[in-house]
Design brief:
about 450 residues; globular; seven-stranded mixed β-sheet; alpha/beta; four-stranded parallel β-sheet; homodimer
């Protein structure tokens, strides 16, 4: 074989034993989530109706590391450690001196990084005696991950799937059903929140979250599970970045730029936070780049304010970049990135200038996806195609500068359930959906009253 | 973590350096393929119009091992060595003393074992200066593997996809197109063979092979590529069984039964032949079990005779179990198993009593697939679901016998493109398609004249 390694594989013994809790490393105190009624910091009690205490303690943890339960690591072993690839073939196609690495999470049974959090969430709920989990899903990645995790822990699972994705990706629904879950098209008739938003037929993550939270809050044997945004979810995903650090060390390189797509932020946080900790603690010069869709440009066009995590205003107020909690993004194919806000932890780092953000349109992301598929072989989901687009632009910049920069991006899932989007791109009918500035401005006028953020 | 390993992983350095050529181990001389005009053994010259000399030499090789080119191993490294799993959770669900292992090939970019042969085939054709490869595909697994391999070696790729699968799995077509291939629904208007079979609208592998061979034979810059049946294809797949032997050794066990599904035979051969060599050379007591669909029961209901590999009679005559070269199997969902014949090498071993065969109906295979998905997490393709069904029955027999038998089966691909079949099963509308004995008998009456087989 040639002496150019294309893959860096860790043994099972190198699956991380702890999650990285970046809360412990923030330069100042984080702005807390607020109870919307009292405007006081939300405490564990605000969360007990929908979350088990095990996850609430993780959500508010201040320890720098949180131990991963043995039962969770046992299931992680089915697809972790995930491989890190060196994209030699893409580098050659781009004629760039940059070294491009990608961490591939598509090998999990559900096809993305989402099971990294679905499994510990199902585990903690099972331990707490919960019998049913209810959730929302955009592209279907999170819903299928939770369906998988619930089948492994013998829990019932119910999923509110955003209408646009339900129509575009019928087989994601089938996948959840094969694992035993029940799937509703959102907005649905099952909930008040769904009925109140019936006119937004393509749905949104915000509406689907409202539906799921409503069901969970109204039933004692049922809890809610969220696939992104919250601290504990971002923390669960840090197995990705920890493994990537060990694998980059095997390759004998350090990333100059860490790149990921951002919907709610868990994929980006998972890859980036371990490297961010090193930057904060050791002054490493790593740059961080978040890629989002131009049709839902939370980090690049949103305002940094307290806002609800869902459309109906049932969640605590979260400090984040937002387009307004009732902004309904257009039905772009990267359904996992159709969220009006982002993880407060990630938003704080953007606000502090530690993470850069960039937004791309559909056609340029699919152009990058096809280029990647035809050089590296893997067919990416539309969400990480945003990260691929950003990586290609960084590699081209390295070529212009004549510098051998080291780029690392997260390939958080495969595109096997997104082929209708590829069809549209290849047949030239994929639209560069416009972001509606006027709708965002109207939504921002409906932001809840809350203290200003620093 | 618990001390029960669930996964056995080999380092990249353990990717096999050679393929196993079982031809060298057969007890007597194999019946040769025949030129249909002369009834004389077909030689390399019969194959040069459609295959490059590199593959022809592999096809007729008598060496026990054939070296894998470095360029091929470099690409294998992208998904090989593939993992071997211990199915603890399925064992517990079945309450069986059997130990169940499975070798998972679904992690390749195309989602099955097929790239193991597509890559060396594309490589040898590229080396020979060929510019375009044409092939057939049933379920789409082989077609997407060849589309992938052609994109990696910068070859044009054209695929005749069996009508039934083209309709059931539109996203397999999209996947091939994303890698740059051109896809025709077979029977097509592009070829004489397609037009002559227009009345068989759902198509068959036999018809699609005729179409592809016709195109390749008529164009000097184009070759044909076959995804199964032939010796060199079965040989390419033996990387699977060689790795599995090393991984079973890591687990400290030997399989009592090796189980695989059979369409044309390459998946089964890939897993089984290295173990078969050990049985033949060292007298190991391993049992081999081939699982096929009851709607296309080549090994269990066919006759052992010389027959064409394709419907139109363009290929050499092959010694094999056959249902008749113009038998059109019903459109079952396991499209990869809809073939009237099987690998001559494998058929010879069945004839010699070294491999047992069993046939299953659609609903019982999907019942096994869902049971597997809900315990082990992986969603299998309909083809390996036949092997899962057989494994479950073997595990139940072990429970009845009170014996801790060791079972190893091949999970040759995931079911991400087969969700409409899962939908049909879960909604209770999946039919147990009947095998037409009268159609088979009529097809057998049209077998070509040829010498009898021993």
């Amino acid at each position: 074989m040639s002496d150019e390694p294309v893959k860096y594989t860790l043994p099972d013994s190198e699956i991380p034993t702890h999650w990285v809790n970046l809360m412990a490393d923030l330069p100042g105190p984080a702005s807390p989530p607020l109870n919307p009624a009292t405007q006081e910091p939300a405490g564990p009690d605000d969360l007990t109706p929908i979350f088990p205490m095990g996850l609430i303690m993780q959500e508010v943890a201040t320890d720098p590391e949180v131990e991963i339960p043995e039962e969770v690591r046992d299931i992680y072993k089915r697809w972790r450690p995930s491989p890190l690839f060196r994209a030699h073939r893409l580098e050659r196609a781009l004629d760039t001196p940059a070294h491009i690495y990608y961490k591939y999470e598509g090998g999990s049974p559900a096809g993305s990084h989402k099971p990294n959090s679905a499994v510990p969430q199902a585990f903690e709920n099972k331990k707490a005696g919960v019998e049913r989990l209810v959730t929302e899903t955009g592209a279907g990645q999170w819903g299928s991950a939770l369906a998988l995790a619930c089948s492994l822990f013998d829990l019932e699972c119910e999923v509110f799937m955003v209408g646009a994705s339900y129509d575009q990706k019928p087989y994601r629904r089938s996948m959840m059903e094969a694992w035993g879950a029940k799937v509703h098209r959102s907005p649905s008739n099952e909930t008040q929140a769904g009925r109140a938003n019936a006119e937004h037929d393509t749905g949104s993550l915000g509406i689907a979250i409202s539906e799921a939270v409503e069901v969970a809050a109204g039933d004692g044997r049922t809890n809610y599970a969220l696939g992104s945004v919250l601290n504990h979810v971002c923390m669960h995903q840090t197995v990705i970045g920890q493994e990537a650090m060990a694998q980059m060390a095997m390759a004998g390189e350090e990333p100059d730029v860490v790149i990921g797509c951002v919907g709610g932020g868990s994929n980006f946080a998972g890859l980036a936070f371990p490297f961010m900790r090193r930057r904060l603690r050791e002054g490493a010069s790593t740059r961080f780049l978040a890629a989002e869709p131009a049709a839902c440009p939370t980090l690049t066009r949103g305002v940094y304010r307290y806002d609800f995590g869902d459309t109906s205003g049932m969640t605590p107020l979260l400090p984040m970049y937002t387009l307004g909690h009732d902004f309904v993004p257009p039905p772009l194919h990267a359904g996992g990135l159709r969220y009006h806000g982002d993880s407060p932890l990630l938003c704080g780092l953007v606000k502090a200038g530690l993470i850069d953000a960039v937004a791309y349109r559909q056609n340029e992301t699919f152009e990058a996806a096809v280029r990647f598929a035809r050089t590296e072989g893997q067919l990416p989901a539309p969400e990480p195609a945003h990260a691929i687009r950003a990586t290609i632009e960084e590699a081209e910049a390295a070529r212009e500068a004549g510098e051998p920069r080291v780029l690392l991006f997260g390939l958080c899932g495969h595109g096997h359930f997104d082929m209708s989007a590829y069809d549209a791109y290849l047949s030239g009918t994929l639209e560069d959906i416009e972001f509606s500035e006027s709708e965002m401005e109207a939504a921002l006028e409906r932001l809840p009253e809350a203290p200003a953020l620093a």
